[in-house]
């Protein structure tokens, strides 16, 4: 059961969400996340002995939920390449006190796994898709993969009854501006919700540059010029995406403005890496190993105490600091594929 009093950080932000990275490996090489030149065939990902076992993940998630976490998002790397992922979903979906379980995937293995995921208790899903143009998409996934298989995965998720289905679209100037309208048009009227994400300076390897960031305001203007939009109230306080609905009733879109309009003030997200580090911010230099405590024999109370102490001292607000001092290149940062989105 959740604790009655939430654990609050230095700025009174409760610990409510957990992003759980179940693998640091991926079958894509998106240049903004795991550029091929850096993560080539020789790259060594975490060895099995270092990554959390399912038993360890489940125990830690139970402790987080006892500490007030209500939502868990399973991510990675690519979560669907972790062996037996559906078994983990089956246990997490029954975790007492957990109100929401979701998963973010690149969609490549979705068509073949979605029915098992649904049976395991997954109710909703987010699929990343940056373009409907095979050539552009091939560049943006770094593997030359076409769009068809991801669209089949999305369709399979719809047939399986997962809802809502959200589509993460990272827009990068000079690369996929055309995706703004293409993706809006494709999903209008389907109930599937595109969410346009500003290209972020996560990690240290993606050559981030402000000139490639397309501010959300531009995305909204572009879509609204074609199909008028009306702002929607957030579904809940601290929602990351700002939502808009089509005035003609054909559905909604969201924009995630981490660069142009940071939302650190309401950030309630902790992250657990594949190797069991608790990370307090997407842009943190690193985290604290809960795995080591676990493997040294700490009991649940001791681990909850450690989580509480870490969260209570949390002062992270990178995106707000970045806007006033752009970019914070000199800072060491954990990589996106290690902490998940
Ligand atoms: N592999 C899965 C996927 O791509 O959906 C899950 C992990 S991925 C790190 C989670 C999300 O982070 C994806 O939607 C991806 O597009 C987004 N992402 C990765 N690097 C990013 C960046 N530099 N800026 C903005 N979003 C990014
Ligand atoms: Fe893989 Fe997702 Fe990163 Fe792309 S964004 S490289 S699919 S982990
Ligand atoms: Fe949260 Fe850090 Fe992102 Fe701010 S920069 S919203 S604190 S993860």
Any key phrases for this structure?
TIM Barrel, binds S-adenosylmethionine, 341 residues, 12 strands, alpha/beta, binds iron/sulfur cluster
User: Spans of 5+ residues with little confidence (pLDDT < 50)?
Assistant: none
Give helix and strand order, one letter per element, not per position.
Answer: EHEHEHEHHEHEHEEEEEEHHHH
Q: From the helix content, strand content and strand pairing, which structural class follows? A: alpha/beta
Assign the CATH architecture: Alpha-Beta Barrel
Q: Which strand order spans the largest sheet, edge to edge or round the barrel? A: 7-8-9-6-5-4-3-2-1-10-11-12
Shape: globular
Determine the N-to-C terminus distance: 27 Å
> What is the β-strand count?
12
**Fourth-tier CATH superfamily name:** Aldolase class I
List the domain count as a whole number: 1
What small molecules does the structure contain?
S-adenosylmethionine, iron/sulfur cluster
Per CATH, what is the topology? TIM Barrel
Q: Can you give a write-up of this model?
A:
Helix 1 packs across helix 9. By secondary structure, this protein is an alpha/beta fold. The chain has helices at 54-66, 85-92, 110-120, 134-140, 148-160, 179-187, 216-226, 290-295, 300-312, 318-324, 336-339, and strands at 17-21, 71-75, 100-105, 125-128, 165-171, 193-198, 229-231, 242-246, 252-256, 269-272, 277-279, 288-289. Strand 8 (242-246) and strand 9 (252-256) form a beta hairpin. The chain has a single domain (17-339), classed as TIM Barrel (Alpha-Beta Barrel). The mean pLDDT is 93. The structure holds S-adenosylmethionine and iron/sulfur cluster (SF4) (2 copies). S-adenosylmethionine binds at residues 26, 32-33, 75-76, 78, 104-106, 128, 168, 170, 197, 199-200, 202, 206, 336-337, 340-341.
């Amino acid at each position: 059961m959740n604790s009655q009093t939430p654990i609050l950080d230095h700025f009174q932000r409760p610990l409510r969400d957990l992003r759980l990275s179940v693998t640091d490996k991926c079958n894509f090489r998106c240049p903004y996340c795991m550029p091929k030149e850096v993560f080539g065939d020789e790259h060594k990902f975490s060895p099995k002995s270092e990554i959390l076992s399912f038993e360890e993940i489940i125990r830690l998630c139970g402790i987080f939920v006892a500490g007030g976490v209500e939502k868990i998002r399973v991510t990675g790397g690519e979560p669907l390449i972790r062996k037996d992922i559906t078994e983990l979903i089956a246990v997490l979906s029954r975790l007492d006190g957990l109100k929401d379980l979701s998963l973010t995937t690149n969609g490549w293995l979705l068509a073949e796994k979605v029915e098992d995921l649904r049976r395991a208790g997954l109710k909703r899903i987010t699929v990343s898709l940056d373009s409907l143009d095979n050539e552009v998409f091939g560049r943006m996934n770094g593997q030359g993969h076409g769009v068809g298989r991801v669209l089949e995965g999305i369709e399979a998720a719809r047939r399986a009854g997962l809802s809502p289905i959200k589509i993460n679209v990272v827009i990068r100037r000079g690369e996929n501006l055309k995706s703004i309208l293409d993706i809006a048009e494709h999903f209008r009227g389907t109930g599937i919700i595109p969410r346009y994400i500003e290209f972020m300076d996560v990690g240290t390897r993606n050559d981030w540059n402000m000139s490639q960031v397309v501010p959300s305001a531009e995305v909204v203007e572009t879509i609204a010029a074609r199909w008028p939009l009306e702002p929607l109230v957030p579904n809940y306080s601290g929602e990351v995406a700002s939502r808009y609905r089509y005035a003609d009733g054909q559905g909604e879109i969201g924009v995630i403005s981490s660069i142009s309009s940071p939302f650190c003030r309401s950030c309630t997200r902790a992250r657990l890496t594949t190797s069991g580090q608790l990370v307090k911010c997407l842009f943190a230099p690193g985290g604290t190993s809960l795995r080591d405590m676990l493997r040294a024999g700490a009991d649940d109370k001791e681990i909850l105490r450690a989580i509480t102490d870490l969260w209570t001292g949390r002062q992270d607000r990178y995106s707000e600091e970045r806007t006033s001092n752009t970019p914070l290149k000199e800072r060491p940062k954990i990589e996106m594929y290690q902490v998940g989105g």
